[in-house]
Amino acid sequence: MSTSMEPGRTRPNRRFRARGALVLAMAGLLAGAGATALSGSAQAAGTTLGAAAADKGRYFGTAVAAHHLGEAPYAATLDAEFNSVTPENEMKWDALESNRGSFSYGAADQIVDRARGRGMQVRGHTLVWHSQLPGWVGGLGASDLRSAMNNHITQVMQHYKGKIAAWDVVNEAFQDGSSGARRSSPFQDKLGNGFIEEAFRTARAADPAAKLCYNDYNTDGVNAKSNAVYAMVRDFRSRGVPIDCVGFQSHFNSASPVPGDYRANLQRFADLGVDVQITELDIEGSGASQATSYANVVNACLGVSRCTGITVWGVTDKYSWRASGTPLLFDGNYTKKPAYSAVLSALGGSGGGGGTASCTVSYSRTNDWSDRFNGSVTVTAGSTAITGWSVAVTVTAPQKVSATWNGTPSWDGSGNVMTMRPNGNGALAPGASTSFGFTVMKNGNNAAPALGSCSAS
Ligand code: XIL
After folding, report:
1. Digit-coded pLDDT (tens) for 294-318
2. What is the set of active-site residues?
3. Distance CA 412, CA 137 (A)
């Protein structure tokens, strides 16, 4: 008898095959990127985050800071792994228009031109936000503020016309918590709820080719805040207010982990007829648990056909806005972390960690009765993510295995050798573990079972 005691991990979703023209276009883009950026190094498909994502019809991006581009390993990691960038601060209002009507595009242009020269796409971040807003904006009266907002959107979008794949038109306009209310800001307080609609209409007129996104945090699962955003997007769609995409920032840590209904939440937004994007992903932590969380995020996006891409909020832990939480895919020395391998593997790529799939096993007796005992075997992945494992467990006649859980057993002719394979728990991030168990009827023999070595795939 086989019973499943705990839900298995979601397997990488393989339903989404190459999507015709888009994939070809992305592949062409990447070929271009490889030729320019990798100076001749052979780049087989699927061995970098960007290439593996492109194979799934998606992009894999990172936030970039202009002042780090001169650091050779920073630039090399960026160019090798990513095919989309978001300026981390350089397109915020205080960076672009610190004095009214006077625009400075230098640092943002540097990022945009560099990315486009390497075939990467660019996300624009962000036009209307309460934070990193120069003081003069807050001092304006309503009608002045309205024209300043529309002018800012128009000037900036026209400057970058044709160069930005998607803009975060409005960022973080909703409050946290259960109210579902809009956040107080100069825009909200002086222009009222209508400022968001006005911003999107102005944005569409300024660059009709750019995708227009609403972007926020704490909206990653189904909750009061995401419900409020959902209601706004549904309203916009029903009234023809131009909106093409919703960004989910996805800043996670132990207090705010990857929600269990992440994929379902992405899907309900997608069902409104908008694309969804993971825009600022970072997950505090380390090792296997961080890697598993990252894999869960990737799997959630791959499970939603309108989830068009993922952006992590920085290249290396050392420059993260939450550096103490080491939330990114490369450590401070630009070494790939277990989270990197888990992401690459979840994207269907190969070469994560550079190693071969491997696993180890350990056994313990978890319950003992006079007539029987329970055994548990823990399977731990090596330094590379694995998608499957098997291990032989041999009992001593006249012992018999009478029950198993969290695995799929098969038996040799004698009935004494049980080969256990996964039951939904085959995919393990580097260093991550899963366990299966079984009951052995002693029939007078109390010997421990013998474990074969673990085989991974
Ligand atoms: C952060 C940057 O990473 C920091 O460098 C800066 O000091 C503050 O802003 N939500 C957003 C991003 O939309 O723009 C923020 O970026 C992180 C939270």
Report:
1. 999 999 999 999 999 999 999 999 9
2. 172, 280
3. 76
